[in-house]
Amino acid sequence: MRDSHPQALFDVLEESLAKTSSPLQTIQRNAKAINKLNQAVKGLLPTEVKPMCRVANYRNSILVIEVANASWMTRLNYEKLNLLSALRGSILPSLSSIDIRINPVLMRKKVENSSLSNQTVKTSQVPNGRKISTETAKHLLHLAKNSSKGLKERLERLAALAGESTSTTNRKD
């Protein structure tokens, strides 16, 4: 009878790969090789380029590197000859060329990560971004006295952002 308890995916893969030589084993070996190549390539690149590129594939003696956008592609093209000779000398003697391609997903991931960190910084610095000074609220209330009904309500709601002490009306959301 089968085991019905949950198993880690890594354990299942290792178990199946140990039994037979399968396409799954080939895929896993290629993924590990590309991962090692990615680490080696990033070790050879300048610091500012590292987060904006990754090794996508190595096939027929051609290394495929993906970059976030065209400007990073241009920057990496300047490093291409140095990278090619360093990789030939240490890791891939059969490497014939490097193909650089644009993958915008890399930029999106970078932007998402930076926007998440910016949001946490902004929320911790400004607990309530909808506040105005009490002096400004007083001026708004004074202006509201001589305004039409609709404008008066809006000015009073705006003045209420300074706090309950300066507002004569309750804030409507």
Tell me what the structure shows:
The chain is mainly alpha-helical. It folds into two domains: about 15-110, GMP Synthetase, Chain A, domain 3; about 130-165, no CATH class. The chain has six helices and three strands. The protein has helices at about 10-20, 25-45, 70-90, 105-125, 135-145, 150-160, and strands spanning about 55-60, 60-65, 95-100. A three-stranded mixed sheet has the order 1-2-3. Helix 5 (about 135-145) runs antiparallel to helix 6. The model is unreliable at about 120-125 (pLDDT under 50). This is DUF721 domain-containing protein. InterPro entries: DciA-like.
Question: Helicity, in percent?
Answer: 55-70%
Q: Widest sheet: strand order?
A: 1-2-3
Mean pLDDT: 79
- The amount of beta strand, in percent, is 5-15%
User: Strand tally, please?
Assistant: 3
- Count of discrete domains: 2
Task: Please work out how many helical segments DSSP would assign.
Answer: 6
Task: Describe the secondary structure blueprint for this structure.
Blueprint: H1 9-19, H2 23-44, E1 53-59, E2 62-67, H3 70-90, E3 97-102, H4 104-125, H5 134-145, H6 149-159
Parallel strand pairs: 2-3
Antiparallel strand pairs: 1-2
List keywords for this structure.
mainly alpha, 3-stranded mixed β-sheet, 6 helices, DUF721 domain-containing protein, GMP Synthetase, Chain A, domain 3, 173 residues, 11% strand
